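Title: Prediction job returns without error message
Component: structure pipeline
Severity: low
Priority: P3
Assignee: unassigned

Description:
Job completed but the reporter wants confirmation the result is attached to the right record. Sequence as submitted:
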Amino acid sequence: MSSANQKYDAVIIGSGPNGLAAGIRLSLEGLRVKIIEAEKTVGGGMRTKELMSDGCKHDICSAIHPMAASSPFLKKLPLEAHGLEWIHPDFAAAHPLDCGEAALLSRDLFETAFLLNQDENRYRSIVEPIVDHWDGLTKDFLGPLSIPRNPLAMASFGLKGLLPASIFQKYFKTVKSKALFAGMAAHSILPLNLPATTAIGLVFYAAAHTGGWPLPKGGSQMIANAMTSYFELLGGEIETGHRIKNLNQLPESKAVLFDLTPLQVARIAGDKLPPSYRRKLEGFTYGSGVFKVDYILKEPVPWSDPNCAKAGTVHLGGTFEEIAASEKEISEGVHSENPFVLVAQQSLFDDSRTPDDRHTLWAYCHVPNGSKRDMTNQIEDQIERFAPGFRDVIDSKVTMNTADFETYNENYVGGDINGGRQDISQLFSRPVSLINPYKIPSQGLYFCSSSTPPGGGVHGMCGYHAANAVLKHEFEKTKSDWAFSI
């Protein structure tokens, strides 16, 4: 892959958030980097398209970005100077209940605690210490397993976070508080009785009270566009519409980074991989999938609790027990008739999403990996449950099942949008190694995708850490040599 006449120091396959982050990180150290993208546009899970009507912009995968706002790497990049504008809804999230009232997650920790009534002091005692140490904690848990930079704060977080959400929810007294926590923890796409599902919930709470749960004006594509613009300003090159099927298609370079999951890497690298390592990649465990509906609405969703219209994200599914039961069914390969549904209503806060008075709506639920079942009715039943008359405001809609997601992005194997199941067994040792998860045991090959720590989400930290591994192993740069670090 390398020669004295090589044109590039590194080539990256894939332009998702981690491929772009890796490209930026390497370019910041003066390396010559090229990103190759199979599709016609950059972005991976950050793409925004007009799916049904001219001028109506729909986020295909990621929509609301708490982890982008919290990312130690992305926060340091001048993305606003490259066209990115964040919008913060009045509430980060709402979780309506059958009583007609919604639990609310505010950007303000004290307001959130106050609105939880009997659980005000409990919420503050749990979340406030995490918020106080948030900058340090994110550098520790948004990366590979290592000695914590903030050992006391990390130990305190870890003692809580390692608990199953089904155990931790008992700290709260009210149905409202327990339900709000269920919606946070269910972002793990795991049964809530598994270890470390509490950590996901706590991370989403703390993210709301630090960077917020913002949405990008104009769609998630604007994050990709801003990262691309900055990468090119640094001298990086991007080629789109070029699908790589084997390593021989690549220009010569010292390092190749894959913003891909293990199945794609095993297929592309082939016999360049040690047989034992390739077998481990082929045995990698993928997680549950998703089924999604994008809507154009004649008017906003008629929520029973008007506060839901002030939230960028709405979690639907009822009580903690209902959501836990739903996620358990899915992990057992059963479709839930009452699924946990995530709703994003970007056009309420971003009038650039439609050219007129209509609105866009984004909604998905979890399903077994590889599911072909149409879950539209189940999703709409859950929305209608908390917003009677919802079906009457639908103008048009389009659905995506797990196969559609995999067609859209080959990384979404069986509809898994997280790059692999993120349970405790694959949290740090994804895809194979615990010690150096980014390095492939073949000269110059590296993973930089969400199949490495810290996993799924638009934060770029997988790409950042992978790039640091490349700097260390291929260019013999130590941290003291780096011009940029977090």
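Comment from assignee: result matches the submitted record. The first helix runs from residue 17 to 28.
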